[in-house]
Amino acid sequence: MILPTGTWTAYNDFGGANHYFGVEGPGRDEPSPVLSLERPWTRGMVWLPAGAPRICADPAPEMGDAPRYPMKEWAFANGFGQYYAAAGWAQYDRHFVLWAEKEGYALDMITQTDLHYLPELLDGYPCVTIIGHDEYWTWEMREAIERYVESGGRLARFGANFLWQIRLEEDGKRQVCHKFKAIHKDPIAGTGRTHLMTSAWEDRNVRWPGASTVGVNGAHGLYASWGGFAPNGQKGFTVYRPEHWAFAGTGLHYADIFGDKQHIFAYEVDGLDYTFRNGLPFPVPADGQPETIEILAMAPAVLAEDEPQGEGFRYYVRSSDHEGLVECLTGEITPEGLARYKYGSGMMVHMTRGKGEVLTAATCEWVMGLKRGDPFTQRITRNILDRFTSSTPAVPREKRA
C-alpha cells in the first residue's frame, strides 16, 4: 500500500502555507510552490474525531439553498487545519486499512517518497494499492509504477485526482509544484528538461497523461457532489459492463447505480474523453493512452462551479481551476477552450499493460463504501484484491478496432 504523501504535503498547512495558500507574491497571499517535508502534519491529517464533516454534500441541498462548505466551518470552529478534509491518513487511508485488516488482507506500507527513492521496494509484491486522494506524483514515481505493472504487477487504485507533477529536492526534504504558473515560474521551463515542469500531466509541455499509468486522467474528471459542483448529483457509479469480473457476485445490472447511498462518488474524480456506441462507453483514442482501457462504470463531473446567486450565496473554487487547466492544456483561455473542458467524468476502468494489469475506481470517496457498509462496493473491492493477490496471470485484452 502506497501512502499518497505527496498530496498530504500539498495540503499540509502547518506553519501557514501549502500548495493552495501562503505568503508568496506581491500581496503575500499566493500559494507556496516549495514546501518542506520536515514539518509536522497539521491537525486533522492524522487523527479526526468521529463525525468530522467530509467534503461531499450531506445532506444534499434543497432547491434554493445557498451552497455550504461544512468542512471549512467545522475546521475553523474547532481548531483543525482548514484542508483536513482534502487529504491525509485520517480522512482516507485509515478507513481502508481498518476494513482491509478486518477482511484478512495483510498490508505493508510505504510512502511516495520511499517509492521515489527506492522503487525496488515494490519487487515481489503481487499487488500494489493506492487509496483516496493521490493528486501529486513525481516522474520517478510513475516510472516505478509502470515498470512494476509491465513486469507483471497489479495496481488496485481506489482513489482519484491524478493531476500534478511534483519534484522532490534536497534528498526528499522539499516538494516543488508551481501548478498553473509553472510555464512562467518553474526554473526548468523552456530548458531541455521542460517535461519535468511541475504542471498538470496533460500540460502541452509535459505530455504524459495519467491514463498511461492509472487508466484515467485528472483533467478529464474533477469535481462532483459538493458546493456548486453538482451537489445533487448521483453520488454513485452507473454500471455499464456488469459482465466484467470486478462485478462478479454483486448481481449488478447494466445501468444500475451502486454506492450512491454511501456517497462514494464525490469530491474529486478522474475520467477520460469518451464516446458511446450501442449504449456502451468507449475511450476516445489519445496520445499516451493505452488501447486496452475498458470503462466499467462512470458518472458525470464538472470542472467549474455553477454559481446561481441569492442571499448568502458564496462559492469556494468557482472557475479558477477550470480556467487554469484550460490554459495548461491549450496555451490560452478562450471561450472555445472553456466550453470544451467544462464537463468531465469519474470512471471505474480496467486495463492491461505488459504482463500486468490496473484497475482504478477513480473517486476519492470510494472508502466510504467500505466504511459505511455498502455491499456492492465491498464485494467489488474484494474481487479486485483477491484477483490481484492471487497467482492468476494477467491476460492482455485484444486491441479494440
Helix/strand layout:
Layout: E1 2-3, H1 5-11, E2 34-36, H2 70-78, H3 89-102, E3 110-111, H4 112-117, E4 127-133, E5 136-138, H5 139-150, E6 154-160, E7 164-169, E8 174-176, H6 182-185, H7 211-214, E9 217-224, E10 237-239, E11 257-258, E12 267-271, E13 274-277, E14 280-283, E15 294-302, H8 320-330, H9 335-340, E16 343-353, E17 356-361, H10 366-371, H11 375-388
Parallel strand pairs: 1-3, 4-6, 5-7, 6-17
Antiparallel strand pairs: 2-8, 7-8, 9-12, 10-11, 10-15, 13-14, 15-16, 16-17
Word description of this protein:
This protein is α/β, with parallel strands linked by helices. The chain has one domain. The protein contains eleven helices and 17 strands. The strands form five sheets. A seven-stranded mixed sheet has the order 4-6-17-16-15-10-11, with helices on both faces. Strand 13 and strand 14 form a beta hairpin. It is globular and about 55 Å long. This is N,N-dimethylformamidase beta subunit-like C-terminal domain-containing protein. It comes from Bradyrhizobium diazoefficiens. InterPro entries: DMFA2_C.
